[in-house]
Amino acid sequence: MSRFAARRLDDLRATGLEVCTHPGLTVVPPGDVTPASGDHYKVFTPYWRAWEAEPWRAVLPAPESLELPEGLDPGAPFTPDDSAGAGSLAPERQAGGWTRARARLRSWTDGGLADYGDRNDDLPGAATSRLSADLRFGCLSALEVATAARDLPGGDAYVRQLAWRDFHHQVTAAFPWINTRDYRARDREWRRDPEALAAWKEGRTGVPIVDAGMLQLLREGFMHNRTRMITAAFLTRTLSVHWREGAAHFDAHLTDGDVANEYGNWQWTAGTGNDTRLNRAFNPSRQARRFDPEGVYVRRYVPELAELSGAGAHRPWTEGDGEGVEGYPAPIADPGR
Fold first, then answer.
1. In the 8-state DSSP scheme, what is residue 241?
2. Which of 10, 315, 327, 61 shows the shortest CA–CA distance to 1?
């Protein structure tokens, strides 16, 4: 539970109301599995083993009706207003709601799930469930998704990702400052570079795979998990800009962002979190060649590169006798080889 959630719970109880909490945000609630030597698991693999062995709660049916206490008016149904905070509302964001969420879950378990283990990093194929925002807003529970998927082809690989989600929640329950402080203090010097940060936010770094991810974020309020890691590593490890700067931008634009997973993953990538490999590298060029070999993902989101053929989309600086592509910036940092 984040500090904000803990304060909110305390404030509700301070009113004199009887406040009851129930599990539901995760498959296995934080604290249900703990190591013998401490209060929470700090590394995923041993957590995963304990998580796998833990029995799950039964999925409960939705209530047929809800009754408000006497004197309360439910009011009109909420309708999002695009004019409020329009700067952070992605124009092509996924529509939410209980009915759409269940349709997406059925479509996923009937179709894409079977190939998830082989295709989850396929950037042009976009072969992920797109259920993350439904989980974040409670349109689906992680438990019902895991229960629906676990015995199906591809279910093992997908359910492991839900365990990663639970892992970050149990870390946050033990370390509620995860969005403001280093989980593991590192002897690192961060740079203040407003121009580089702005280029990164706007998808104008000159590194196509990074820019494609950042432009997908602005357009859809979503980014493929692989490019989340690539873009976060570029900011924190290549540009040496503090992870808090990048996480704040993600928080403003992601429809699926929650404190535990968003900040837990940022710290993991930056080397201040739960990754045991402190010097893990995400070479942008190698990542692009591996997960978008023909440049399809890049051309989809970076309009200036739409006419480049094949893998050439990943090397625009070689076009025009080395002059690059008109209208597209030169790399602000070494993209790697």
1. B
2. 10
The structure tokens listed for 157 are 């690989």
191 DSSP β-pair partners: 241
For 136-176, write each residue's pLDDT tens digit. 999 999 999 999 999 999 999 999 999 999 999 999 999 99
Residues near 327 by beta carbon (within 8 Å), at least 6 away in sequence: 304
b/e burial code for range 159-182 (CB count within 10 A of at least 16 → b): bebbbbbbbbbbbbbbbbebbeeb
Kindly list the structural domains of the chain, giving each domain's residue range(s) and its CATH number in brackets, ordered by start: 3-58+94-174 (1.25.40.80), 194-322 (1.10.579.10)
Q: Is residue 206 a contact partner of residue 331, using CB atoms and an 8 Å limit? A: yes
Strand pairing partners for 241? 191
Number of H helices, E strands in the chain: 15, 0
What six digits make up the tokens of 324?
């690059």
pLDDT digits (tens, 9 = 90+) for 68-85: 888 888 887 766 655 444
pTM over 0.85, yes/no: yes
| Averaged confidence pLDDT in the chain | 92
Task: Tell me the C-alpha distance between 284 and 183, whole Å.
Answer: 26
